Amino acid sequence: MGLIVVSSASPSLFAEPGPESGDGVCETLSEPLSQVMTLLGKRWTGVVWSTLMQGPVYFSDLKRGIPGINDRILNERLVELVDLGLATRTVIDDRPIRVRYQLTERGAAIRPALAELTRWAQDHLGEAGRPGR
User: How many angstroms from the chain centroid is the CA of residue 85?
Assistant: First the structure.
């Protein structure tokens, strides 16, 4: 199998090539694309983010709605989304105290990109992540 060479890359996906770049050089991802791929690449982040697309949801409901995730990881992912301004956290002073999470406008703005990724996965990955035919 040969080396895959990236050339004539879209400036929106890749950083501007440096002066030493030439034929056969693999360009660096742009900073924004690198940031979102790093964020979505963390285990459970994309699932939590996508689940929050449904609207305001309580921590306990998120936990039930995402099979296999544990409390610590769910909390870490939610804190990260809140810290990035992609979600809000509201404490409901009730018995017992409840915590509700909701995407901000910034957090919900990824919906079209996720829809496109879903469409791509359906077309190219097939069922259960197996390569399509």
Answer: 14
